[in-house]
Amino acid sequence: MVSRSSTLVADSSVPEGWALHAHPQGWVYFTNPTLRIVTDQDVRLPEICEMLDKVTQFCLNNADGIELHLQVAKELSGAAEGHGAGALSLAINHLHCVASYDLEEVTTRFDSLQTDLRTLNRRRRLYWNFLWNHPSHAPLPSTALDQARDALIWYITDNLISGQRSVVPFSKAECDDLGKVLKELADSCYDNSPARTVFVAWFLREVCSFRDSQNYGSRTLKQSDVLRRELKSSLSPSVSRPPPFLLPLINVVIRVLFFGIPLIYLSHVRKSSEYRGRLANIQQNWENYIEQLVREYAHVLLISTVLLSATVGLLSVSDILQPAKTAAIVSALASLGSIIVGVVAIWRHQASTRTTDSFTYMYNAQHNYLGYHGHAMILSLPPVLLVWAVVAFSVSILAYAMQDAADPADRWSAWLVLSLFLVFLFFVFGALWTFSGLWSFQHRSRILSFRSIASVFPRFLKKSKPWDIEIV
How far is residue 296 from each of residues 316, 338, 392, 464, measured CA to CA in Å? Predict the structure, then answer.
């Protein structure tokens, strides 16, 4: 275990009265225990040491427990001209764990009960930031671990209550890891560890930064609820719609020519563009969005490839007439279009997985002329073209079967195929109708419409009516 004394480096070039300390990350800083001064300037340089000698005369009457952190060299130069150390140094009160650029605000007369919580939180953030950068000369305050554990417990609670909408700076998994480390650091063998000081100071600095961003200690419960609702509404993505005069036409195209498929992709795009909780959730939403698109496109590509093979096989039949051939060619072209668009979409989406890519993607999708509707129509092209390919292939099969209907010897088989096609078509539409509303609560008129259809076939559907099942 590295102890605090082992970070005190003996260096003959360090002036008398000064000590050199090493940070766990490797850099060094200097302290003057007599004058209670800490500086990052290299006192081994004669010009820096000379300026410090001029500055330290203002620190001779320093209050007990107060350290002064002298900062950049140009400020030391200004102090050497007589501006005083208090205007260019950070005053550190280790007893109350506060720091300020005004020495009077952190003296031993400091009373946290007479300081508003937001100001107190900012002073504590300055303190923990100082200790994070200078951990090797001062022990960790005795209350630091208790403060860290208390903040961590609340972060875990908020993650459990709010889920993905939690805005605390650490996720549930990160809180679990932090809890294990804090539990380990409570062991007495880490009492003199500068690394422990760095870790706890970093964590408490992040706690104070988060509290400052949330205006910690300045609002009532009612005011906080109002602000949270306003923030939620402001973060909700604005619905990007096409121009009003085009919206009815686009809705007709989506529901008729595109079979309503773009509505599914429209919900995918809107869901992935929502900002909930931490910024890291945007990346998670974006990755889930890409994974879902790639998976769906992969299934479409498989079916399109099989359908294209079947269509080519149909076109190779020697006695196929022109109507069936035309429908088969349309089916083949639609399958090819589905494959081409699907492959390009998979390639482009898988190559852009960064968070910055998601911002650019959503911005462009939202601000094009047709908005999210137009983008959803483009995303739905592979499955839409596949559906049209299936329709054209079915027409070609039906046309091929009916091309011998004029021949008395083959007429019965042609009408049998047509009858079976109509029966299959009825069940396909019934299945599509059921699946279209199976995952949402339906109005009773929808159930009654199925009952009216069922009444046409009372004997066939007498024993089983799955659409009459009601949720209690």
Answer: 31, 12, 22, 33
Would you say 274 and 236 are in contact if contact means Cβ atoms under 8 Å apart? yes
- How far is 95 from 330, CA to CA, in rounded Å? 82
List the chain domain ranges. 5-141+190-213, 247-403
The reported pTM is 0.64
* Cα–Cα dist 145/197, whole Å: 10
More confident residue, 4 or 139: 139
Tokens of 70: 């002298």
How far apart, in whole angstroms, are the C-alpha atoms of residue 359 and residue 366? 11
Report d(CA 207, CA 158) in Å as an integer: 14
Tell me the per-residue pLDDT of 419-450, one tens digit each, with 9 for 90 and over.
888 888 888 888 877 777 776 666 555 544 54
Cβ-contact 275, 371 below 8 angstroms? no
**Given strand 98-100, what is the order of strands in its sheet?**
8-9, 19-22, 28-32, 37-39, 66-70, 89-93, 98-100
